[in-house]
Amino acid sequence: MIGNVAAxxxxxxxxxxxxxxxELPAGYDINQTLxxxxxxxxxxxxxxxGLLNTGxxxxxxxxxxxxxxxxxxxxRLSNNWLxxxxxxxxxxxxxxxxxxxxxxxxxxIIINTLPHPRQALSLxxxxxxxxxxxxxxxxxxxxxxxxxxxxxxxxxxxAAALYRRxxxxxxxxxxxxxxxxxxxxxxxxxxxxxxxxxGTPVTLDRPTLRGFNYRGGMTLIPExxxxxxxLAFYTSGFIAENVRSGINAVDRGQRDAACALGLTENRTMKxxxxxxxxxxIVPPLTSxxxxxxxxxxLAIAIGYMDLVATLGGITLTQTGREMETMLLVMAIxxxxxxxxxxxxxxxxRRQRLVEx
Amino acid sequence: xIRRLLPLVVAATCLGGIAQAxxxxxxxxxxxxxxxxxxGVVGFAAPDDKGIWRGFDVDLCRAVAATLFGDPDKVxxxxxxxxxxxxxxxxxEIDLLSRNTTWTFSRDTDLQLTFAGVNYYDGQGFMxxxxxxxxxxxxxxxxxxxxxxGTTTELNLADYxxxxxxxxxxVPIETTSEALTIYLAGRCDVYTTDASGLAATRAATKNPxxxxxxxxxxxxxxxxxxVRQGDDKWADIVRWTLNALIAAEEFGVTAANVxxxxxxxxxPEVRRLLGAEELQGRAALGLKARWAVDVISGVGNYGEIFxxxxxxxxxxxxxxxxxxxxxxxxxxYAAPFR
Lengths: 356, 338
Prior knowledge:
Largest sheet of chain A: 4 strands, antiparallel
Number of strands of chain A: 8
Number of helices of chain A: 12
Structural class of chain B: alpha/beta
Number of domains of chain B: 2
Strand content of chain B: 15-25%
Oligomer: heterodimer
C-alpha cells in the first residue's frame, strides 16, 4: 500500500508536505467565524475556524439531542396513551429518515418559509427572524460588569455551602429544608442588586436593518440552525430509545419498593430508576454522541462551513493536496471521537461506582 | 507516523488506481473516452428530455471522441462539482475535464494540470433580482452573496470586495442547481459566477426578466479543456481537436458541407485539415487522414456548436462577444494546420 502510494505520487510528480497550511493565504471567506478571520489568513486558520464551527454544532447538537431524547424517552413510557403515542411517532419518524434529508428539509423550511430581512418577524423590536438568520441583541460589557460577576461568584459559593448544609441536615436527621431555594434566591437577589448598584454595566447592541441585511447584534445563520436542529432531531430518536430500554432494564421490584416507601412518582424516577438506568443508557449514548458529531460533516450540503467544507473542501481544491488534507481531517475527527468516548467512559465509570 | 497512516487513507479514499502515464493508448484500448462535465448548467452541460447530456462543454468531449474513434458517441460522462473535478482528473477517473474550468497560474503549475486551450472567454459577473433596485456591483456593500465553493469565483469575489473596501456575507453552495434554488428563495441578495453561467442560470428561472445581470465584469475567466500534466500526446489530441473546430469555422467548413469541401476545397490549409493533403505529424498521433471530417460532421464547427447551445436562438441567448473569430474582432484564433 505504502509502495503503491509512493509510486502514484512519483508518477504524478507530487510531494507530501503540509507547508501549504501556513505558507498560502486561504483567499476564501467563511460565513460563520468564532475567531477573527479574513480571507488573507492562512489555510491553517481557515481550518481552525472550520474546526470550531464543527465543535459548535457538535456541542449544541449534543446538548439539544440529550434534552429532547431523555424527554421523549420518558414520555414514551408514560401511562397516558396520547403522550406515549406522540413520543412513539416522533421516535419512528426521526430514526427512520436519512439524516441528510432531515438537514435539507429543515434548511428548506427556514429559507423558504421565513420572510426576507426587509419583512423580518420582529419580537419586541430587538430580536428579528428572517431567512438570512436569527438576529439577537449582543451584550456589550463595560468594566463595572466584573464587579457584578464577582458578587455573583461569592453568592454562588454561599449558596453551595447552604446546599451542602441542607444535605447534611437531611442525611443526619431526615428533615428536609429548602436550602437549595434559599441559596438560589440569595444568588439571584444579590446579582440583581449588584447589577443596579454598579449602574447597569451591560448594554445591548441591537441589530438594525442597514442596506441589505441586519447589522450589529449576534446572528445565528440559517445553516447553523438547520444543521444543529436536524442533527439533534435525528439523534434524539435514538437517545429516546436508549433511555426507554435503560428504564425498562431496571427491575420492576425497584419501582414497587420505592412506591412502598412512599416516594412520589417524580422522586422514584429521579432517585431510584434513573440512577440505575444510566448504567444501561450511557454506553449506547456515547455512540449516539459520536454519530451526531460525525454526521455534522454533512454540513456542506447546506453550505455550513465546518471542518470538511474548509480544510477538506475548499482548501483541498485550491491547493490540490488531497492526501494531506484528508489525512488531517481524519486525524482530527479521530481525535474528537476519542475524546468524546474518553469523557463518556469516565462518566460511565462514576455511574458504575454508584451501584449497590 | 504519516507513512503508517497512508495505507488507511488509500483504502478509504479508493483513488482510481495508478494514474495512466499514456492516456492516449489507454483510451484507444478502452474504446471510449471518459469525460468530466458539469452537474448541470443549461447550455454547457445539461440533460435533454431524453436524458442525454447536451451542451457546449459536452460537444467538446464528443469532438475528441470523434477524433479518436470517428464516432462522437463513444463518451462516458462523469458529472463533477467544482470541488471534485481536479481530484477526478488527477486520479485517472476521467481522461478529459471539460467543465467551465478557468485557466490559472496555480492550477497550471501547482495542481499539475495542462490546459489544452481556451474554448470560452468568460468573466465573472453578478445577478440580482430586479426589485432589489441595484444597478452596479459597487452598490453591493453588505450584501449576502451566493457562490459556488472551490472555484476561482470565490477568490475573485473576496479580492473584488477587498479592493473596493466593501464587505459581504458569503453563502457557499455546491452546484448550480442548488445555487438557483437558494438564490430564488432569497437566502442571498446576489448570485455571482461567470457571466455565461449567469445567463444560463437566468434562462433556467421561471421569469428571466425579473433578474438583472449587473454591468461589472470583475475578472478574466478563460475556460478550457483540462488534462493531466506530463502527458503531451494526449494534450495534443485535445488541443488540436479544439483548433480544428475553430479553424473549421474560420474557413467556412460546416457539418453540412464538410464532406464536399474535403474533396473540392482549393485552400491548402483546409485540404490539410480535412485530409485531402498530407498533414505532417498526423500519423505520429495515430490519427486517420479524415479525422477532422469525422469531428466536424459529428458536432459541427466552433460557431455551430456555440449557436446550438449558447447563441441568440437558445434560452441562454449569449452574443459571441470575445468568443467571435479573430477576423470579427473576437479572440478565437486557431493555430495553423501545417
